[in-house]
Amino acid sequence: MTITASPIIPARTALLLMDFQAPMLSSVPDPETLLARAGAALAWARSEQVRVAHVRVAFAPEDFDAIPAHNKVFAAAAEHKFLADGSPESEIHPSLDVQEADIVVRKTRFGAFSTTDLYAALRSEGIRAQTRP
After folding, report:
1. I need a labelling partner for 125 at 20 to 30 A (CA). Which of 49, 79, 80, 109 fits?
2. How far apart are CA 21 and CA 119, in angstroms?
3. Is the pLDDT of residue 133 over 50?
């Protein structure tokens, strides 16, 4: 079986940088290496005019209110108002140099597409998921 890679078409491609925030990075064994690799991917994307999208976890007051107390993952965040939108821990790591033209979305669950307008934003620019056989 031979696998061939489709060429990258910058106008139809996006680099998604997701959850590059201090609390998430602190759970990674070597966050500096991860940030360096993400930075290299970001530099490549910018040099090729590939669309850049950042996804971050952050909760508005109404988002905290909507988290069920039995939710094992997010209940503690709701109780302590952790990752509140605008708080330092909800910010994207500064080494990733978010630019004005970048797409930046705020998610309130695990999926980057289920609670954001990321899919619509990418689709409006002709960027669609591509499946392989």
Report:
1. 109
2. 21
3. no
Tens digit of pLDDT for each residue in 33-83?
A: 999 999 999 999 999 999 999 999 999 999 999 988 898 888 888 999 999
Residue in this structure with the two tokens 């508005």, named with its chain if needed: 60
Angle at 28 between CA 22 and CA 34, to 5 degrees: 85
**Tokens (6 digits) for 38:** 């993400």
Residue listed under structure tokens 């302590």: 80
Residue the block writes with tokens 């503690």 = 76
Residue found under tokens 């680099």:
15
Domain boundary assignment for the chain: 11-124
The CA distance from 76 to 67, in Å, is: 10
Q: Which residues share a beta bridge with 79?
A: none
Q: What is the DSSP letter of 24?
A: H
